[in-house]
Specification:
Strand 9 and strand 10 form a beta hairpin. The strands form six sheets. Strands 16, 18, 19, 20, 21, 22, 23, 24, 26 and 27 form a ten-stranded mixed beta sheet that branches. This protein has five domains: about 190 residues, no CATH class; about 180 residues, no CATH class; about 50 residues; about 210 residues, no CATH class; about 170 residues, no CATH class. With about 850 residues, the chain is α+β, with helices and mostly antiparallel strands. The chain is about 55% helix and about 15% strand. It is a multi-pass membrane protein. It is found in: Cell membrane. This is ABC transporter permease.
Length: about 850
């Protein structure tokens, strides 16, 4: 039986090739995701290892705020620590974010994702003797008009040693034009992963980023060779004053890497979710493929039974074929996954996360996962077709018309209906307030999955009216050829719908995302229209902070009546990141804040006001304590008011500027709302504002329409990424249609020969197969659009309390998906139709 199974595979090379497509792509996505994320993890771990000292002295309990924090370490500690036993050298370190290098075309380098750092130049070795940034060309900076750039930044910006480098900062001095005197890098190889670094002489960095104070953000203590990091840390702690702590470089690097990797862990989850989608779609295709293969070999399998093979042996022979196909598909998938990982690395490099200097990481678990997924999914998908082989009675070998028994469609329909009803109940429970059992998100997601699986199971029955309608239309439009195409689709509705289901899943998700994206943008437009009270908004193109000196420039522009500043910084609340916004309480009325409880006068030092959504999320009322961890440490503010959701205060937690500065945040603005004098020409004022901001390419002035468009841009980017990833599932679905049609042509070789013998032309034959393909694609599209519309509306309803109140169904996009389905059907039929048309008539008729 083993020999027979291998001969069967080798005797049907085309079927073997077609059968491996789906599993290859699914495994490739899994491998590509794992290799890319392992590379990402290794790169950040290596980076942080090379950017900390053996022992790091910093303010005690360092907390959110990072480079935006005013917490520091006094410079006189450097001399005191130099006398610590086991200390080889001590170096003060300065690092702040928001320092952008402007390239030779006037555009900022970096800014999206990885930080843009301004530091003091230090040649201190990293922990464990690792070599950090080193001057590769030129020299270190000396004096206020000199700077050193990392080599990637200098290369991207187009600067060489001796050039003048325009730089903008988010601190007091907004613009710099130092001379590039050195280019730094890692001599032993390495990368900053897209971060940019501009380094100045220490006294200059203190003047720029610490208002001239003799202090550092941290101090590195380098150990002697015969002293461990733990031993040195213990000695350092003995001489530290209250309020400061010493941590080993290994611990600090691990903490920083863990925090960052946790923050971007959604990438791994995100990509693996789509790998799972691809595998699910691929599973449908594999089930369909083996169903066809078993049906085509039913006479061969029955003959084996007649010759003495047992049911179990026949079933195992099919499973053996699945094992071989799974192994082959996984092997090819591993190779393609490496190519995909390279592509992902290039894609993320394009948006700022540059891993080009990092070699790809291949962990054993990646290969194990690839083969486990490839083999297990294929064998599981082949199980039911293999089980059906045991129903072939030996006497069937004596017949010419061998048909494999099909599973009862009535039983499938009843099971699918029960599953869909259960999913509907779970979905209702998750969306409604009638039942409160917790985990509503899981109920919604589980309900949708159950409905999707239920509809898939019911699809042979649900699709019957559409397939009959297609046959009628085809017969009227294309005559006997159209009638044959319709009958072929109806001949095996289970196979037709199984193939269509693969496309249905991809389009279900695409339609749901189209509705979510359109609704989110419509909600943003509504919020901006109702809440935008200023005439212009000035903000960073990177959604970060900028110099507080810009507000003064804008206020002096002719036609500007008032400028309201906002500041924002990260904080930690209940173990998760939160954002604190600060503004002048007197300006809340101008910002269009509608208080539901409390008033603007109640916002005093040590208090906060919160949005309706934030209050509902945390179950807060006026007068309640609001505990949060800010750069200065843990604080407890009092809730002074609750306001209706506001587009200009979208973060939902607002305090006054004095409280914000007390918390340890820097004096940097994140948003300026500009109000104009009566009668001012807004177009002319836009030009004047642009002129004032001409030397700040990271900062722009936007009117209401431009501000709304800017808010929609992030949504468009997210939806575009989703579509790109769903594209793989759609590619697999298209290959599934090609696969089914190609195998169907092989199965119907004799039939095709007879059609050609009675006068059907090659053109008519190609048309017949194309019409069959279109039926499959349109069926999948109709089911996908209906389910996707329902799921999209349900998901938007689920987040109605999160400020996304508008539900928008983009009919034009849904219509485009349906039109795309017809195109998919035409394209998928090209190769199978061409093969059918090229069959030799006599050979085809003689096929057994």
């Amino acid at each position: 039986m083993i020999r027979a199974a291998f001969k069967s595979l080798l005797g049907r090379k085309l079927r073997l090739l077609l059968s491996t497509f789906a599993i290859v792509l699914g495994v490739a996505f899994v491998v590509g995701t794992l290799v890319f994320t392992d590379t990402l993890n290794r790169s950040f771990t290596s980076l942080f290892d090379a950017t900390v000292g053996d022992v790091v002295v910093q303010p005690e309990g360092s907390s959110p705020g990072g480079a935006s924090s005013t917490r520091s370490v006094p410079a006189d500690l450097v001399e005191r620590l130099a006398d610590v036993p086991g200390a080889a050298r001590v170096d003060g370190q300065i690092g702040t974010d928001g320092v952008y290098v402007i390239d030779s075309d006037g555009k900022p380098i970096g800014g999206f994702g990885p930080p843009s750092l301004g530091t003091n130049w230090s040649d201190a070795p990293a922990g464990n003797g690792l070599v950090g940034l080193t001057i590769l060309e030129g020299r270190e900076p000396r004096g206020p008009d000199e700077v050193v750039l990392d080599e990637k930044t200098a290369e991207k910006a187009g600067y060489d040693v001796g050039d003048t480098v325009p730089i903008t900062t988010a601190d007091r001095t907004a613009n710099l034009e130092p001379t590039l005197v050195g280019i730094a890098g890692f001599p032993e190889g390495g990368s900053l992963n897209g971060a940019t670094v501009a380094s100045f002489e220490t006294s200059v960095a203190q003047d720029l980023f610490h208002d001239g104070k003799d202090e550092f953000d941290s101090i590195w203590v380098t150990r002697d060779d015969d002293v461990s990091q733990d031993e040195l840390r213990a000695e350092v702690e003995k001489v530290l004053p209250d309020g400061y702590e010493a941590v080993t470089g290994d611990d600090e690097a691990k903490d920083q890497a863990d925090d960052l990797l946790e923050a971007i862990s959604f990438l791994t989850i995100f990509l693996l979710i789509f790998a799972g989608i691809s595998l699910v779609v691929g599973t449908y295709i594999i089930v369909n493929t083996f169903s066809i293969l078993v049906a085509q070999r039913s006479r061969e399998l029955a003959l084996l039974r007649a010759l003495g093979a047992s049911k179990r042996q026949v079933q195992r022979s099919v499973q053996l074929e699945a094992l071989v196909l799974g192994f082959l598909g996984a092997t090819i998938g591993v190779g393609l996954g490496v190519v995909l990982a390279i592509g992902l690395r290039a894609l993320f490099g394009f948006i700022g996360l540059d891993l080009s200097g990092q070699p790809l990481v291949y962990r054993p678990r990646t290969v194990v996962a690839a083969y486990a997924v490839g083999i297990l999914v294929t064998m599981a998908a082949a199980y039911f077709p293999a089980r059906r082989t045991s129903r072939i009675a030996p006497v069937q070998a004596m017949r010419d018309d061998i048909a494999l028994p099909e599973e009862s469609m009535r039983r499938r329909f009843v099971l699918g209906l029960a599953l869909a009803l259960a999913g509907g109940v779970a979905l209702f429970a998750g969306l409604s307030d009638v039942v409160d059992i917790g985990g509503d998100g899981y109920l919604v997601g589980g309900g949708m999955l159950a409905i999707l699986l239920g509809v898939t199971a019911m699809s042979p029955v649900l699709s019957a009216p559409l397939l009959r309608l297609a046959r009628t239309l085809y017969a009227r439009l294309f005559g006997s050829v159209g009638n044959l195409a319709g009958q072929n689709s109806l001949r095996n509705p289970r196979r037709t719908t199984a193939t269509a289901s693969a496309l249905m899943i991809g389009l279900t998700l695409a339609c749901a995302m189209a509705i979510i994206g359109a609704s989110a943008k419509a909600s943003v437009d509504k919020s901006v229209e109702e809440s935008f009270t200023g005439d212009f908004v000035i903000s960073s193109i990177f959604q970060g902070s900028f110099s507080s000196s810009i507000a003064g420039r804008v206020a002096d522009v002719d036609g500007v009546a008032e400028v309201v500043r906002q500041r924002s910084g990260f904080a930690d609340r209940d173990g998760g990141f939160s954002v604190i916004v600060a503004t002048d309480p007197a300006a809340l009325d101008r910002l269009g804040v509608d208080f539901l409880a409390g008033s603007a006068a109640d916002l005093t030092r040590g208090t906060v006001i919160i949005s309706r959504t934030a209050a509902a999320s945390d179950d807060l009322q006026v007068g309640d304590p609001y505990e949060i961890e800010v750069p200065r440490g843990k604080v407890t503010w009092k809730v002074a008011g609750i306001f209706d959701d506001n587009a200009l205060l979208s973060q939902g937690v607002v305090t006054d500027i004095a409280t914000y500065e007390d918390a340890g945040y820097k004096k940097q603005d994140s948003l300026l709302v500009v109000y104009t004098e009566d009668g001012t020409d807004l177009g002319a004022l836009q030009d004047r504002l642009d002129d004032v901001l001409a030397d700040q390419p990271t900062v722009t002035a936007k009117d209401q329409a431009a501000f709304a468009a800017d808010q929609r841009k992030n949504i468009d980017m997210f939806v575009l990424i989703i579509y790109a990833l769903l594209g793989l599932a759609l590619v697999i679905a298209v290959l599934g249609i090609v696969n089914t049609l190609a195998l169907s042509v092989i199965e119907r070789t004799r039939e095709v020969g007879l059609l050609r013998a009675i006068g059907v032309t090659r053109r008519q034959l190609r048309l017949m197969i194309t019409l069959e393909s279109i039926v499959i694609a349109v069926l999948g599209a109709v089911l996908g659009v209906v389910l996707g519309t329902g799921f999209g509306v349900a998901l938007m309803y689920a987040v109605r309390d999160e400020g996304l109140e508008v539900i928008d169904v983009p009919l034009d996009q849904l219509g485009l998906f349906l039109a795309l389905a017809v195109l998919i059907g035409v394209v998928a039929a090209v190769l199978p139709a061409r093969r059918a048309a090229r069959l030799d008539v006599l050979t085809a008729i003689a096929t057994d």
